[in-house]
Amino acid sequence: MKSDILKIANKKFKSRLIVGTGKYKNMKECAKAIKISGAEIVTVAVRRVNILDKSRPLLMDYIDPKKIMYLPNTAGCFTSKDALRTLRLAREIGGWKIVKLEVLGDKKNLFPDMIETLKSTEVLTKEGFKVMVYCNDDPLMCKRLENSGASAIMPLAAPIGSGLGIQNKINIKILRLQTKVPLIIDAGLGQASDAVQAMEMGCDAVLINTAIAKAKNPFQMAESMKYAVISGRKSFLSGRIMPNLFGSPSTTKIGLI
Amino acid sequence: MNKKNKIKIVVNGKLLTVNLKFSLKNLIEKLKTPINKVAIELNEEIVNKKKINKIFLKNNDKIEIVHFIGGG
């Protein structure tokens, strides 16, 4: 069987599960959950070094960026200016060019500010970044992002950390039809079946943080998400039967007594 | 303490007093920062980490030192 490879900005990945590294009890737990999930890409945030407490553990001591690709994000940025500053700094830490852009517009629902997001995508692309963009599920805005050179379109399923699952399946289906770059569901997934659904709809990957990190057993949930993504992907590739309102017996009538 | 020989700088929002002719490299060493795991900004301009020994700090300079932490 031909191997099923995910390609983002010319980089190849076997796993279609991308995981976040936030909200874990500690870095040890985070590193273990990531290992179990089988993810090859993890999102990371850029923050000030604590200059008063030098003994605090560093993320890089627990998750080796040579073994797992770091995807720097702009979590917490509400303006294009802040997002650009953050990603330029991220690149400076060690040459990261593939980045995740998210410019938030509302503190309560954490929906993206698409005007600022589009503006930032244009600038970053011109500066040579490969930009994976967190966005809403509006096909028109997503098309604009793609036309501006986005390396991946990452619509939300529901608000970040909400665990509500895919709320607007029609838009995701439209996005699947129109999007030529990887389409990755980012934010809002809560359980394994949500990930299966996203993959069965033909999405190229999913990004999950809270659903794993805040599960009562993050390790078991990490494993569950790993298999959900594999299962959903295989189901999508298998070519499902058409749904039918009426029954169709599984056993032949020939030889019936 | 002779104040003439001291300057005040702000590092990650914290006020620090250092000697005159204090370089960015001196600061990184003083803070024991692993240089390969951080990025540095001086007055909102990104600094080339290879040149920090040639950059001398001035009074009221604002320095930001950032690294990666867990995030979604």
Tell me how many strands of chain B there are: 5
Q: Could you report the average pLDDT of chain A, rounded to the nearest whole number?
A: 94
Q: Report the end-to-end length of chain B measured between terminal Cα atoms.
A: 47 Å
Assigned CATH superfamily of chain B: Beta-grasp domain
| pLDDT < 50 runs, ≥5 residues of chain A | none
- What name goes with the CATH superfamily of chain A? Aldolase class I
List the helices and strands and how they pair.
The complex is a heterodimer of chains A (257) and B (72).
Chain A: E1 6-8, E2 11-13, E3 17-20, H1 27-37, E4 41-48, H2 59-62, E5 69-72, H3 80-94, E6 98-101, H4 114-126, E7 130-135, H5 139-147, E8 152-155, H6 169-178, E9 184-186, H7 192-200, E10 205-208, H8 210-213, H9 218-238
Parallel strand pairs in A: 3-4, 3-10, 4-5, 6-7, 7-8, 9-10
Antiparallel strand pairs in A: 1-2
Chain B: E1 6-11, E2 14-19, H1 24-30, E3 39-42, E4 45-46, E5 62-70
Parallel strand pairs in B: 1-5
Antiparallel strand pairs in B: 1-2, 3-4, 3-5
Can you walk me through this structure?
The complex is a heterodimer of chains A (257) and B (72). Chain A has helices spanning 27-37, 59-62, 80-94, 114-126, 139-147, 169-178, 192-200, 210-213, 218-238; strands spanning 6-8, 11-13, 17-20, 41-48, 69-72, 98-101, 130-135, 152-155, 184-186, 205-208. Chain A is built from 9 helices and 10 strands. Chain A has 257 residues and is α/β, with parallel strands linked by helices. By secondary structure, chain B is mainly beta. Chain B has one domain (3-66): Roll (Ubiquitin-like (UB roll)). Chain B contains 1 helix and 5 strands. Chain B has one helix spanning 24-30, and strands at residues 6-11, 14-19, 39-42, 45-46, 62-70. Chain B is globular, with a radius of gyration of 13 Å. Chain B starts with 5 loop residues before the first strand and ends with a strand. The mean pLDDT of chain B is 89. Chain A binds chain B through residues 20-24, 27, 30, 43-52, 54, 58-60, 70, 72-73, 75, 85, 88-94, 160-161, 187, 207, 209-210, 213, and chain B through 11-14, 31-34, 36-41, 44, 46, 49, 64-72. Strand 4 of chain A pairs antiparallel with strand 5 (62-70) of chain B, so a sheet runs across the interface.
